[in-house]
Design brief:
Beta Polymerase, domain 2; 4-stranded mixed beta sheet; 4-stranded antiparallel beta sheet; alpha+beta
């Protein structure tokens, strides 16, 4: 059992009596010198504050806890403010015989009022007056505020009477909450007592429902601003879902509605059990520990756990790298477990509010309690253990789950069948009985209920999401439990693994029901032909369960077979589900990294997929997986590639032994369809140059773009009348990029020149598709962003004009333009990215395919292309993509005279040169805010 460090006692940190004596001495030593008195007092107070804060920081960094650090910082601030009050009212503006109108006290409100203060947070003060402002009170308040500001403190302050406080609290629930947390600091304590007595006696009665409604709306708005999911990979630990503010909301409502003052009150009023109080305390302490460390690391009131902070936080909190799990991912998993626990506490508290709702104006409680006026609880004849309570499914007896744990799984099955929400009381009961779940994992009734949920034609993701929130899903299905709250330390994934998975399940349901069909019309069209729905949903639920165990896809297959056997599935269904998980990345990798105009690509893919049913399943699975990664990852280009791969593979299946011929025919047909669509958009009198160009493009071009892009290209070709196009730019808001089109006579090094010009102008290539026409002309399309992730030059026409000019000069071989050096800044990075180079001579008919992956940076594509030229490689096509901070590129290359690069010595030399290019400018180690601070500090600086 770990020994919990005891925080230093406040009297050992700031000696209040000694500080007051020193302030008195300063006043006596500087009689008649107001400026000198103030200067010395400020020096003493600032010194005490600085010393106290340094001790709190050292204690935290030596292994102390966040909640105790926050309380220590608050106590230090208390001592300084109390000493300042005494100094101000005794030595600066002494009132020997104060009148009733001069009664004044200093009150801590807000977070500071709760006795919790983060290192960089504001301090909120209320100067409470008995009557209207007097000259003496105004002078005291002004003097104290200027002293606090001169100490470098951020002070939120107000000066009010009791009547003003109550009036404003009735009008604004934020002020009502601030006073709810009020704590006396200095001055007339009796006056503070009068405020709190009036607040409890005059303001609270009859306002409970209104206050609850306002706080819940505030919570919902806060979640909306900070991201509706609690599982964002860069979460806001204060305002995010499951963060500190949610714990505060429980405390505020409990204090306002029930008069709760401490943990014992929560138990006495049957709001939480002792175990749940431990969970609440543990959650608050963890969140405060992280918050205090982040404030010290950044030197500001930063509440977001950004990627560059996460490794340092993991190290500070003792999360070391394991064999398969980096310490940073273990730290973030713990964070997400904590916010999930906060969510469970919130549901339990909501259930208590609903149960007791009749005690407080029922009409106002409609915000969180939707009970009808009559017949609030209606029994279910088909399932007497359950009732409909206010239109939501609940359990008739809260102890039923303890006696019959299988009913927990039945709860969600019935809720899905009836299309009803689950009552918070039932969810709370599930959470309180999780220790019984292991005993029902092989129970036939529990398994049947689970399989009915996963294969539901209603809203399987909604039921699964609730099961996951309560903890039931991970307990019942331990393979899934392994990835609950698991984070992926990269900039590509936006959510934790379990959140991503459940969103993907929801997208499958959307496809099945034809919702948002415009995003994926082919998937919606073929879904009715799918014969193995349940295998599809199970595969989606389990597709990432191999993460953190080794090779994700191989280990995922192992997890599926284990789960399938325990669930009693037929061997055929287990094999199909396992195959889908093993190959769930196959279709996206083939579509985005391979040349779909090469019949070899299609036939190899068809050989792996084997059947039209697997092809249909894989398409839906792939679309849902990509869409669930996060906003903006799915786009029309990826949709087009997947559609083309699907149709071409269908042709291969129909062709049987003549699969390659069937694919060639389908490719020709697809190219013909696209040409016809383009020609239909132009008048018959269109230039012969355009017609010639349309015939000169290889089939690969027609597969690379959708009709809108084809029409844009044709428009530019028509406008330029067969002349070179040294750059035409078109912003694409849907994808957040600016597309740049280049058509010029091909030559060795042209691609190097163009990509060099792009990098020199600050453009990041997130996608590049290059083609060579039958007439020997290069036709390249680059999708560009700036290094902030925005469409390049979208609102800056001068940048686009300069970019186009640079491309023209580079394409023409201008030596000065080609000689421009591109030195990417060694900007700090939280991620270690291992470079990977793979050469494949089996993936294409007449080319060697080079898969190159490493840290994305300015000039990387130019450097890789230069390596290819220097090694006598002719570039046929490139497939370029950025996945977070990682560049994932595939190059189809051949020898100058044609044919694959088959000399093993030459291949190894080429791969080594590509790896060297990937490692150029690589930071020696991920930089963190703490390391940056240490780098700037003098060598002799102490703590």
């Amino acid at each position: 059992m770990a020994i919990r460090l005891k925080p230093p006692r406040i009297e050992h940190v700031v000696d209040g009596e000694r500080l007051r004596a020193q302030l008195t001495a300063a006043a006596l030593d500087n009689i008649g010198d107001e400026a000198g008195t103030r200067r010395r007092a400020l020096q003493l107070l600032s010194g005490a504050l600085f010393r106290g804060r340094m001790i709190a920081q050292e204690w935290l960094e030596d292994g102390g806890h966040g909640m105790e650090t926050a309380r220590l910082l608050s106590a230090v601030q208390d001592e300084v403010i109390a000493a300042l009050w005494d100094f101000t009212t005794i030595h600066v503006f002494r009132s020997r015989n104060p009148t009733k109108g001069e009664r004044l006290c200093v009150v801590a409100v807000g977070g500071y009022g709760r006795g919790e203060l983060a290192p960089s947070s504001d301090i909120d003060l209320l100067f409470l007056r008995a009557y209207k402002q007097t000259a003496w009170a105004e002078s005291v308040i002004e003097y104290m505020l200027y002293m606090l500001w001169d100490m470098g403190l951020k002070v939120g302050h107000s000066s009010r009477t009791i009547e003003e406080c109550l009036k404003l609290a009735r009008e604004d629930h934020t002020i009502a909450t601030a006073i709810l947390d009020a704590r006396f600091l200095s001055g007339d304590e009796k006056l503070f007592g009068e405020l709190m007595q009036r607040y409890r006696g005059d303001l609270i009665p009859g306002q409970e429902a209104v206050y609850v409604s306002a706080k819940l709306k505030e919570r919902d708005d806060r979640h909306l601003r900070s991201g509706e999911s609690r599982y964002l990979v860069e979460p806001n630990l204060k305002d995010g879902k499951g963060g500190l503010r949610d714990l505060h909301t429980i405390g505020w409502i409990a204090k306002f509605v029930y008069g709760v003052m401490d943990e014992d009150d929560f138990v006495r009023l049957d709001i939480f059990t002792r175990d749940e109080i431990i969970v609440m305390r543990r959650s608050a302490d963890f969140l405060w520990t992280v918050r205090c460390h982040i404030h010290y690391l950044t030197g500001r009131a930063e509440e977001r756990i950004a990627f560059d902070l996460q490794p340092e936080m993991a190290q500070r909190l003792g999360y070391r790298d394991g064999t398969a799990n980096p310490g940073v991912e273990r730290f973030m998993k713990r964070y997400f477990e904590i916010v999930r626990d906060v969510g469970r506490l919130t549901r339990i508290f909501a259930a208590k509010l609903e149960l007791d709702g009749e005690k407080f104006a029922p009409r106002g409680l409609g915000r969180f309690r939707a009970k009808p006026a009559v017949d609030q609880r209606k029994s279910l004849s088909s399932a007497p253990e359950f009732v409909l309570d206010g239109g939501r499914l609940s359990v008739a007896d809260p102890n039923a789950f303890k006696r019959q744990p299988v009913l927990m799984m039945r709860l969600f099955e019935i809720a899905d069948n009836l299309d009803k929400d689950v009552h918070p009381a039932a969810l709370a009961a599930v959470t309180r009985n999780l220790n019984s779940v292991a005993g029902i994992r092989r129970d036939p009734d529990a398994i049947e209920s689970f399989l009915n949920v996963i294969s539901s034609r209603h809203h399987p993701a909604a039921a699964l999401q609730l099961m996951n929130e309560t903890g039931l899903l991970g307990k019942f299905l331990p393979e899934f439990g392994h990835v609950v709250a698991r984070t992926q330390f990269n900039m590509y994934h936006h959510f934790t693994v379990d959140e991503h998975t459940l969103r993907a399940v929801e997208y499958i349901s959307e496809i099945e029901h034809g919702r948002r069909e415009a995003d994926h019309p082919l998937a919606t069209q073929i879904f009715p032909q799918i014969a193995h729905r349940r295998a599809l949903y199970l595969a989606m639920l389990l597709h990432d369960t191999g993460k953190g165990k080794g090779d994700q896809q191989i280990e995922g297959e192992v997890q599926v077979r284990s789960a399938g056997a325990r669930l009693g599935l037929e061997r055929e269904e287990i094999d199909l589900t396992a195959w889908l998980v093993r190959h769930h990345l196959l279709m996206s990798d083939t579509a985005q990294k391979r040349d779909l105009s090469d019949p070899r690509t299609i036939t190899d893919f068809a050989d792996l997929v084997q059947t039209p049913e697997k092809l249909r399943l894989l398409l839906v699975l792939t679309i849902a997986d990509i869409k669930a990664v996060g906003e903006g990852v799915w786009n029309s280009w990826k949709a087009q590639l997947l559609r083309d791969l699907f149709r071409l593979t269908e042709a291969a299946f129909r062709g049987g032994r003549a699969a390659e011929s069937a694919v060639q025919s389908r490719l020709a047909e697809r190219a013909k369809e696209s040409r016809a669509a383009v020609e239909a958009g132009f008048p018959p009198a269109s230039s012969g140059a355009l017609q010639s160009w349309l015939q000169a493009l290889e089939d690969a071009y027609w597969l690379g773009f959708d009709i809108n892009a084809h029409l844009w290209h044709a428009k530019e070709l028509h406008a330029h009348e067969g002349q070179p196009i040294f750059g035409v730019a078109k912003p694409d808001p849907r994808r957040g990029v600016t597309d740049v089109l280049v058509k010029a006579p091909d030559r060795a090094g042209l691609f190097v020149a163009i990509t060099g010009a792009l990098a020199a102008e600050g453009a990041s290539v997130v996608d590049a598709r290059i083609y060579t026409s039958k007439a020997g002309e290069a036709f390249d399309v680059f999708s560009l962003q700036d290094w902030s992730g925005q469409a390049f030059g979208a609102d800056e026409s001068h940048r686009l004009e300069r970019l186009i000019r640079s491309i023209e000069l580079a394409a023409a071989g201008d030596e000065q333009t080609l000689a421009r050096e591109i030195i990417p800044p060694k900007k700090p990075s939280a991620f270690s990215i291992e470079p990977v180079v793979v050469a494949d001579n089996m993936a294409a008919t007449d080319c060697t395919v080079l898969e190159v992956s490493g840290r994305d940076r300015a000039g990387l594509l130019r450097d890789l292309a230069r390596v290819l030229v220097q090694n006598d490689c002719t570039l046929k096509s490139a497939h370029v993509e950025s996945v977070g901070e990682r560049a994932v590129d595939a190059f189809y290359v051949h020898r100058p005279a044609g044919g694959k690069i088959e000399d093993p010595v030459q291949l190894e030399k080429l791969k080594a040169a590509l790896r060297e290019a990937l490692l150029a400018y690589e930071p020696a180690a991920p930089m963190t805010p703490a390391r940056r601070l240490m780098a700037r500090a003098p060598a002799s600086a102490g703590r």
